[in-house]
Amino acid sequence: MSVTRSSTRAGSLRPVAETLALMALVSAAFWLVGLLTRPLAAFLFVLSPPTLGHPWTLATSVYAHAGVGHLLSNAVVVVVAGVPVAAATTRLRFHAFVLATGALAGLAQVWVGGLLTPTGVVGISGAAFALVGYVAAANPAADALGRVARRVDVPPRVVVVAVGLVAVAVTLAFSPAGSALIAHLAGLSLGVVAGRARLLRV
Fold it and tell me: Where do the Peptidase S54 rhomboid domain residues begin and end (predicted)?
């Protein structure tokens, strides 16, 4: 029995460890290319308009980071929120979720933020917030709150607004100054929706 539990723990850590390795490798490549030529680094790794002009950055921008501090801070969130998610799903689904939510959060930052000023984005923080949102929405406490809301007949619109306000508050509370707020909010929202739908459950 103990062998089975150990192998389960190791299995749940594997996709998280692989994600951390990807973050380190892609970030190192980004920094190295940036030392040689910044325009090429931006072309290869930074998600920026027009996004269809260099679609590979939908993936590379998720794992590339602006600096060591940026990398480490996101790595902490990926570990803390990623381990319980990885333990409840498959390796493939975990990686697909991280990449998809990271890319969609980045697109939200570029498109919405671009309405004010053209912007580029790198980093896995959108996906990290999505992992946090998934953990928050897919746990028994969230189910209990949902049952209470139904018993007291809280209108669905009120629930949606309340969840939205909490998401905004969490985003503002845990986003450093100058960070990609729109990407963080988009990632958190995607995670909450996926968590309520138990999208990664196997």
Answer: 54-196
